[in-house]
User: Fold BadM/Rrf2 family transcriptional regulator from Neorhizobium alkalisoli.
Amino acid sequence: MRHDSRLSRMLHVLIHMGRHDGPMTSEMIAQMLDANAVVIRRTMSGLRENGYVRSEKGHGGGWSLARPLKELTLLDIHRAIGEPSVFAVGPAYDMPGCPIEQAVNATLKSVFDDAEKLLLERFANVTLADIAGGFSPVVTAGAGERCEA
Assistant:
């Protein structure tokens, strides 16, 4: 089952930006994430619209933080990237007339709504600075790769 990793990837990028001296280009970010620079620009534009990053055009330009990491929460970034579903599971709508499927779906919706509310409340209480403070400046990324933080 495919997971939506946009939140994790953008948190990764933003923490790097908080430790990077100067702007980071879309190409730099794309290379870091093994992604397409167009996708990076599209995602970063949502962060810019919310005032979390800014962009500078031209030579020496790129993306930089508009606010310090301590002012950015997981909830802020989650909302800025379009509020992707926090669950990979959900109700089925194969037989909408079946009372059993209706009961199952109603129960799942209630449980998922409660769980999502709790998760988003927790997101609101965790800053990117909290995450950034949890590791040393040079971290082993795995498989022999190094992630210079």
In short: The CA atoms of residues 91 and 104 lie 8 Å apart. The domain at 6-86+127-148 is CATH 1.10.10.10 (Arc Repressor Mutant, subunit A). The chain is about 50% helix and 10% strand.
